Amino acid sequence: MLQFLLKRKSIIVIALLFLIAVTLLARDMEKREGSGFFSPLIISLFSFPLEISTAFLKKVYRLGDEYIFLLNLRTENTLLKNIIDQIQLENQLLREAAAENKRLRELLAFKKKLPYPVVSAEIIGRDPSGWFQTILIDKGADDGIQRGLAVITPRGIAGKILEVYRASAKVLLLIDRNCALDIVVQRSRAKGILQGRSQDRCEVCFVGKTEDIQIGDVVVTSGLDEKIPRGFVAGEVVRVNKLASGYFQEIELRPAVDFAKLEEVFIVKK
Q1: Is 51 exposed, middle or buried, given 0-12, 13-18 or 19+ CB atoms closer than 10 A?
Q2: For the chain, what are the domain ranges?
Q3: E-state strands within 191-232
Q4: What's CA 44's distance to the chain center, in Å?
Q5: Any alpha helices (H) in 34-156, and if so which ranges?
Q6: What Rg do the C-alpha atoms of the chain give, in angstroms?
Q7: Out of 105-109, 141-145, 175-179, which region has the weakest mean confidence (pLDDT)?
Q8: Which of 34-43, 120-129, 185-194 has the highest mean pLDDT?
Q9: With 50 as the cut, is the pLDDT of residue 181 above it?
């Protein structure tokens, strides 16, 4: 309706000016001639159209006010939505900062308890091919990192240094098929070799069928490797098969470390 009025605003303005002029003329005649014949007639003829035009103008003004109100309301809604989005973003950043601070405090407390000198490092890359379970850390030869050193977390051993560069190093994770580690079952002291399976599991090899291995047993590093100290948790036994063919048991291990959530690690400088 507003567009209709805007298109015909010239006609409306002329008509209104005509009505106003006639009305003023009628009132002027009334003042000069008293109660003449034409004055009441003119007034009666034009008073009704004037009332209609006045009511029409009031409606137009009211519609204009409502239109402006709706425009202002939409602007305010957009502004409020932007404010809400900004607050949600700030809350997300604050939650992430709080989680990081908590994680760093836990890492610092863990570092203080270690009997060995360690270097903290952050993960800056992962193997994109999917063929190898490796990560890249931001510490290298400049920080005293050497091939074969143990890479640990507060939950247990994550792997060992595979390649060293000047300012970074590649870590071979425990779950890689090329990773082998001397381990011992904490409860029974049975020894074996832990080997990755390229998934979220490892297997313990070369454990004789007479050895006492049970589901739930904790497996730790044996210390037989000169660069990897003893006692770091490798994982928990989740499956044992003593009826397998051959001389050894089939032992499946769930690693202690959640490799999908690794962000910071320590390198043990034994």
Answers
A1: exposed
A2: 1-113, 118-268
A3: 191-196, 202-205, 218-221
A4: 75
A5: 38-113
A6: 43
A7: 105-109
A8: 185-194
A9: yes
* Residue count (the chain): 270
CATH of domain 118-268: 2.40.10.340
**Phi then psi dihedrals of residue 27, to 5 deg:** -70, -35
Average pLDDT over residues 176-205: 92
- Residue 149 has what DSSP assignment? -
Average pLDDT over residues 11-17: 59
Do the strands 134-137 and 150-153 form a parallel or antiparallel pair, or are they unpaired? unpaired
Tokens standing for residue 53: 């035009």
CA pair distance 32, 26, nearest whole angstrom: 10
Q: Residue range 1-13: average pLDDT?
A: 55
- Cα 61 → chain centroid: 50
Spatial distance between the Cα atoms of 17 and 67, rounded to a whole number of angstroms: 26
* CA–CA distance, 234 with 157 (Å, rounded to integer): 6
Output the pTM of the full model. 0.65
What's the mean pLDDT in 52-57? 64
